[in-house]
What we know:
Helices cover 40% and strands 14% of the residues. By secondary structure, it is α/β, with parallel strands linked by helices.
Amino acid sequence: MAELAESLRVEINRYPIGGKLPSSRALVERYRVSPVTVSRALGQLAAEGLVVTRPGAGVFRAAPRTAAPAPGDTSWQEVALSAEGAGEIVPRSVDATGVLGSLAAPPPGVIELNGGYLHHSLQPERAMAAALARAGRRPGAWGRPPLEGLPELRDWFAREIGGAVVAADVLVTAGGQSALATALRALAPPGAPILVESPTYPGLLAIARASGCRPVPVPVDAEGVRPELLAAAFEATGARVFVCQPLFQNPTGAVLAPGRRAEVLRIARAAGAFVVEDDYARSLVHEGAGPLPATLAAEDADGVVVHVRSLTKVTSPSLRVGALAARGPVVDRLRAIQIVDSFFVPRPLQEAALELVGAPAWPRHLRTVAGELRHRRDVLAGALRRELPALELPHLPYGGYQLWVRPTGGGDDTAFAAAALRAGVAVAPGRPYFCAEPPGPHVRLSFAGVSGAGELVEAVQRLRTGLADGLGPDA
């Protein structure tokens, strides 16, 4: 598309202002590209103001844009954005650096080991397109949905969560990030402490700080959060919220051990606190992993757990459909905050999600993802051990899409990431995953966003070549 757009930019100069360009069909034949490529290239030129499109008439060269007016003086905003009101103790700035690191597309030619979504080749694009087409034809599909979400979709989420959770306990949300933001706003006032796993997902830390809350770290080991430290943190801070990922924790991949699950719920219940269970990776289990543990929500009898679930990770970044599940009076507060923030999730998207998970292609997609993630994990881990033995890989997860590695020799993870980028590989430094001082340098390597196993091997070879001088004597 970029090459065609550049060719058309040159060709436009041969036409007078208002002159008509060749038809799309003629451009398809001349440049031997698809109609979609032509449409996107012309759309790019229209966005640049070089052409105008007149439906039914064609595409014409646009008149040159007039000079932009001189920019105004926005320096006054520095005062307005930093000023604190009377008695205000919550910082007003928002740091999204950790989130942007996994959302921003790497430069051309750079292998993406820092992303958080499936490569498009692993996304069920045909199934999603078919689901969206079927959903769009449903009677009432473009009308206003129930504020809590479509009953059938809420029921599907309830069955997926398990236990005593029913459709009435579920709210459909615009993805997992939105669900987490709603949960924290409902459960913790500005200035309140929130207990989080350490390390943890940077998007959660960004939500907490943007809400004016103070994240407090509770260390995680190979078996999940440490209950004795969780109890001590509740006692020391008086917190009323603990956010955790009991299954394939991001970034470590740890699974909360069976002996700790009931203990976490007991500790939270004794503290009069909620446990926000971010079950983001249940559908990202690897092939051959065996039965998964139940959700904490399924084992919770007292309404301690507020459960977060999303379809986004296993489908597409743009299928932003998730769920919040809770029991008791907190449901009304969650519902009220979601309505204030966004009214509701668009009905066509909900209808499409319902069509997708009910189609025969859905279980086949899950099996494909499970097999591919297992294969990619093994390929990446094997290449690291073979090519970069100076990187410690203490835990090999059986779900999720990342490896949490540690450079030896006291290296700096930020410098490591910068050197990796110069070598043509984008990785995520570990510092943004900690809300306090990290115990040492770490790097997260994602294997979801690459085209396949060959690209993982190429990435490690690039790291080997580009980082040999900075990884110690065994590199």
